[in-house]
Amino acid sequence: MTATETAEDVVRVDAVVVGAGFAGMYLLHKLRQDGLSVRVVEAGTDVGGTWYWNRYPGARCDVPSMEYSYGFDAELGQEWEWTELMAAQPEILRYAQHVAERFDLRRDISFSTRVVAASFDGGRARWTVTTDRGDRIEAPFCIMATGALSAANIPEVPGLERFTGRVLHTGAWPKEGVDLGCRVGIIGTGSSGVQAIPVIAEQAEQLFVFQRTPGFTFPANNKPLRPDVKQAYKENYAEVRERQRHSSTGFSNWSPINKADKKAPATGPRPPRPKLRELDEQQRQEAWQQYGFGLFNRFTDIYKDPASNAAACDLYAEHVHAVVQDPDVADALTPVGYPVGCKRQVLDTNFYETFNRPNVTLVDLRKGAITEITETGVQTETGHYELDILIFATGFDAMTGALERIDLRGRDGVRLTDVWAEGPRTYLGLQVAGFPNLFTVTGPGSPSVLANVIVAIEQHVEWIADTIGHLRRNGLRTIEATAEAAEEWGRHVNDVAQGTMYVAPTCNSWYLGANIPGKPRMFLPYVGGLGRYRARCDEIVANGYEGFALA
Ligand code: NA7
Question: Are the CB atoms for 374 and 163 separated by under 8 Å?
Answer without folding.
Answer: yes
